[in-house]
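Budget justification, computational time. The allocation requested in the original proposal was used primarily to generate structure tokens for proteins on the priority list. As evidence of use, we reproduce two of the resulting records. The first is shown immediately below.
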Amino acid sequence: MLPIYSGGVAKDWEQMWLHLEGGTAPVDQDTQPQSSYQPQPAFSAGPGWQQPPMSRQPAPYGMGITAHALRQLATARKWALFLAVMGFIGCALMVLAAFLFGLSFSLVGQLLPGRGAEAQSFGLAAAAFYLVLAVVYFFPAFFLLRFSAQTKQALSAHSPDLITDAFRHLKLFFAYVGILVIVTLGLVVIVMVVGAALVPRHDIYWGLVPFLFC
């Protein structure tokens, strides 16, 4: 029994002939089931987002890093290394200044028997101040050094884990500096308020007179 075809007359004869000859009948595109699946873009930033050029296609979980961006990152790594070295040199100079202050004021205390204790206490206070500054400025230099070193390793080995760790140290650097700025501004405000409360008002007014004529 011949199969039954449901196309036009010419199409039915063509399909019947191919069936009898042992070939494969052409598939009717009108009767072929259509899939409802529509591919979605891997990244979308909203209704106003436009597809970037093919050389800068975004990655599935964020923005892609181009070769130009990697070159910029390599240059930034070198400047970070320079700032880290300058920071460590500054910390070393602060430690040296703390040692010199303590030594010099102890010698002054020996030369001035009447005021030796006062000179030594002032020297210890100055030495402690510079040591605290050295500790405070050590951590930003350390974070920049780690960022520079891990970025260099990541660019050489093409390692996403190393570049992630490098950006983590860069985040720690900015967070540390931001907290340090907030604390410094708070201390300045406290000193100004306390100073204004302790100094008589007429002295404050006379102290502001030179600024009015500048």
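The second record produced under the same allocation is shown here.
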Amino acid sequence: MSTHDPVPSRRPPFPAASAMRALTVWQPWADAIAYGDSLTGKGAENRPWPAPRWIIGTQIAVHAGLRVDHAAVLPCGRAWPGPHVPHSQRVRGAVIAVATVAGCHHERQCRGRPCSPWAVAGQYHWELEDRRPLREPVPARGFQRLWRLAVLAESAVRLQLGRAPVPEASFRVPGTVRSADFARRASIAGSQACRPPSWSAAQTSRAMARAHLICWT
């Protein structure tokens, strides 16, 4: 324990963290992963660091970050999967799909030929399989590297995948914290700062209402 903080904090972090990990990807690359089949979709995500061994074979959430890569260039003979809209109008600040990390290797292991049209030289290639776009994006704040989804966000993702929501025990709130205050803090993912620009206020409200319905009933 640090000498600067002799008394442990009684308040848990908000929002509570879930078990599902997420990876933030800039647009339009996020849409390229989420949409398209095994031939046209982006099945290789390029990173300067390797995928941890424990994530191999695990399903992760694909999070569209707030930034847009305006210099993005398509591989030869490819078209952007997903909505045919300007990159700046694509959904941002939300989970838009899930995918399974099937493997990871460095470009040096491709043996002189690209393992995917989407692969970039000098990078680690994360092999993404079973890519499934969500019917409706789930607002969430992104972070660098792999990060844990908030419990509310994971419940909203699970609902669309036809899975059971996060166990109710994950939502226990200390008696010193009012439920309304907890709900307000946990709803930050749907705030104006994180809401995709293409969303209306009604769309955001419906998405967060579904998440709260799972958590509070």
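A brief technical remark on that second record: Residues 4 and 10 are 16 Å apart (CA to CA).
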